[in-house]
Design goal:
Blueprint: H1 16-29, H2 31-47, H3 55-72, H4 85-112, H5 114-117, H6 125-152, H7 164-188, H8 190-203, H9 218-225, H10 228-240, H11 247-280
Helix pairs in contact: 1-6, 1-11, 2-6, 3-4, 4-6, 4-7, 4-10, 6-7, 7-8, 7-10, 7-11
Length: about 280
């Protein structure tokens, strides 16, 4: 009786739909691991720091104070912002700092975990989720400070304030999505991180962070097109209780960011093992 012969071959075909499903499953299924990593990192972040949790908002606060001094002394003449300038600049710098952290999150978290990536097999998406948990923790402190400043300047409580956490979650999603596509290149070439830091410094000046959009001119057009503009303006409008400007643009960007986030996760899942293997060789 002839024996049946079976030939096994490695399937090199990359089935994106299967990988995407696994990617989404691991992202939402790695909650416990991500929580443990985030808790460890948060404790380590403040364990040996005298000022502790104050460092979460000390940089944006001092940045705001610089612009307030420039405005008060007349060194820089700024157009009317519609709300007290300290509230305007504090809200802008705090929200901008959250956006910057969100963009840098995937690269910094992956870099920090490079040693365990080569030794332990675990869902890499947990690194992104843990980074988001840390960012939300630090952002909660900044939001409390911002609410306090709004109340101190007599703007009072607005029911729209309850939507502010949701707007921040959307802004973080937008930032992390950008960061996911940057991370693989940032791990290979350190120049990428420096370019991003330098680039974000320039982008801040074409975003209504510390001054309002001009009434006319080329800068007005640039600032209106800038996708960071609705992130800052909608968040600021919500917290001070004014009518949200650029709301349709904001919703369009979030609508695009949501599917791009999972495409970015897919790109991250496929590229990171290859990059880690290359870096550890």
């Amino acid at each position: 009786m002839p024996l049946e012969t079976k030939i096994y071959q490695k399937d090199n075909r990359l089935k994106l739909n299967r990988v995407l499903k696994a990617c989404v499953k691991d992202f939402f299924g790695s909650h416990f691991l991500a929580k443990q990593l985030a808790t460890r990192d948060i404790r380590a972040q403040y364990r040996q720091s005298y000022l502790g949790i104050i460092w979460a908002f000390i940089t944006p606060v001092f940045s705001a104070l610089v612009w307030i001094m420039l405005s008060v002394t007349g060194t820089v003449k700024l157009s009317d912002t519609g709300i007290p300038y300290p509230v305007y600049v504090f809200s802008g710098t705090l929200i901008w700092s959250i956006l910057k952290e969100a963009i840098n999150l995937p690269t910094s978290n992956t870099n920090a975990a490079r040693s365990i990536l080569t030794k332990i097999n675990f869902p890499k998406e947990a690194l992104i989720l843990s980074g988001m948990y840390k960012l939300f923790f630090n952002s909660a402190i900044k939001i409390l400070l911002l609410v306090l400043i709004v109340i101190l300047f007599g703007l009072g409580f607005s029911w729209s304030l309850l939507l502010f956490p949701l707007v921040i979650v959307c802004a973080v999603l937008f930032g992390v999505t950008i960061g996911l596509f940057i991370t693989p290149f940032g791990l290979i070439y350190t120049d990428v991180g420096k370019i991003i830091t330098f680039g974000l410094g320039l982008v801040m000046y074409i975003t209504p962070v510390v001054y309002a959009i001009p009434q006319e001119g080329v800068m007005r057009t640039i600032m209106e097109i800038n996708p960071f503009t609705p992130m800052i303006i909608v968040a600021r409008n919500v917290i001070v209780g004014s009518n949200p400007e650029f709301l349709s643009y904001f919703l369009s960007i979030i609508g695009i960011s949501f599917p791009l986030f999972f495409i970015g996760l897919l790109f991250y899942r496929i590229s990171i093992p290859i990059i880690v293997e290359r870096l550890s060789a």
